[in-house]
Amino acid sequence: MTDLARDYLDLDSLFSAEELGLRNRVREFVQARIKPNIARWYEAAHFPREIAKEMGALGLLGMHLTGYGCAGRSAVEYGLASMELEAGDSGMRTFVSVQGSLAMTAIHRFGSEEQRQRWLPGMAAGDLIGCFGLTEPTAGSDPAAMRSTAVRDGDGWVLNGAKRWIGLATIADVAVIWAKTDEGVRGFLVPTGTEGFTATPIEPKLGMRASIQCDIDLTDVRLAAEAVLPGAVGLRAPFTCLNEARYGIMWGAMGAARDAYEAALAYALERHQFGAPIGAFQLIQQKLVDMVLEIQKGTLVALRTGRLKDSGALRHEQLSFGKLNNVREAIEICRSARTIFGGNGITLDYSPLRHACNLESVRTYEGTDEMHTLIMGRAITGVAAFSPGTAG
């Protein structure tokens, strides 16, 4: 594979030696630990729980947070790690996202010092697992319509409701649950062994098979007063966590796309038909060129967003640009890459279709295409169009 095939615009020159060093360490981990096993894990719908501690040892869990055993890495470094993890599989990057960008960020940003000390060091090490319960069966894109409630009972709280599509819930030690109260939406830390908390895996799935997504049922879950996140009042708090996850997604999607492209390129050079490698044919080269164009552009979008984030200048509307564009383009790249393999492309011997199936889920979570389109539309026009009649 030529240098131009790997990095056409020499984007590596835009990163520091420290950033590239971290990227390469994560790439080596993915190459050694994930890629040799992912087809088997995916087919068996298995998430390897033991990999959490391995990722913790690499400093990947809550890596953008500081203190409490967290690595305190930059946004760009977190993005590069996300890219490499998703080159292995979306489920691996999703684990890091749910653990770090959602559950750990909620505790780090909105929790008490006691809550941080209790949970974050173990979560950073991978000894403890967290999940993030916002989405509900009837409230996905519209979390303000959630039906889960938390009612004061003496000095404590009683939670009732249901959550859906909650990553890691069946293996989690603590759940960050968002519920309506008389004070507005509040966040609660619910140890998953609490009576009335039930998590059930959502099965079968056509994508994200090496990951865990669950239904959660909350039936008269009794919590002490100190279970509430003191700094979280209203939907701004969970949206802050979602924005952290959206940021990682824009990098991760390009990792999946890059892996699909590299697999397709290697196959095109080794597969012979009509007396020549299929990579010598014009239509195959057009597909490969289109992939390179979008991967390089998408990586530039992610990098620009990361630099803005590290400088403190990033606006939340700008996250929608990267999430919408990069996931949408990554799906098309993976689908196109699959066609280069012909019939062989539908097997788990090759990664593109697995990536494409995973990315259909990534396209939906942390904001659908439609929601990010409307977020961008509001930013461009100044007019909200999130519900009928609001566009004027």
From TrEMBL:
Broad class of enzyme this protein falls into: oxidoreductase
Q: Which SUPFAM superfamilies match?
A: Acyl-CoA dehydrogenase C-terminal domain-like, Acyl-CoA dehydrogenase NM domain-like
Pathway, per record: Amino-acid metabolism; lysine degradation; Amino-acid metabolism; tryptophan metabolism
| This enzyme's EC code(s) | 1.3.8.6
Stretches assigned to the Acyl-CoA dehydrogenase/oxidase N-terminal domain: 17-127
Task: Kindly list any coiled-coil regions of this protein.
Answer: none
Acyl-CoA dehydrogenase/oxidase C-terminal domain mapped to chain residues: 234-380
Required cofactors, per record?
FAD
A GO BP term, please?
A: fatty-acyl-CoA biosynthetic process
The record's listing under Gene3D superfamilies reads:
Acyl-CoA dehydrogenase/oxidase, N-terminal domain (1.10.540.10), Butyryl-CoA Dehydrogenase, subunit A, domain 2 (2.40.110.10), Butyryl-CoA Dehydrogenase, subunit A, domain 3 (1.20.140.10)
> Residue limits of the Acyl-CoA oxidase/dehydrogenase middle domain?
131-221
UniProt keywords, alphabetically? FAD, Flavoprotein, Oxidoreductase, Transit peptide
Reaction catalysed by this enzyme: glutaryl-CoA + oxidized [electron-transfer flavoprotein] + 2 H(+) = (2E)-butenoyl-CoA + reduced [electron-transfer flavoprotein] + CO2
The protein's GO terms of the molecular function aspect are: fatty-acyl-CoA binding; flavin adenine dinucleotide binding; glutaryl-CoA dehydrogenase activity
Family designation: Belongs to the acyl-CoA dehydrogenase family.
- The identity of this protein, by name, is glutaryl-CoA dehydrogenase (ETF)
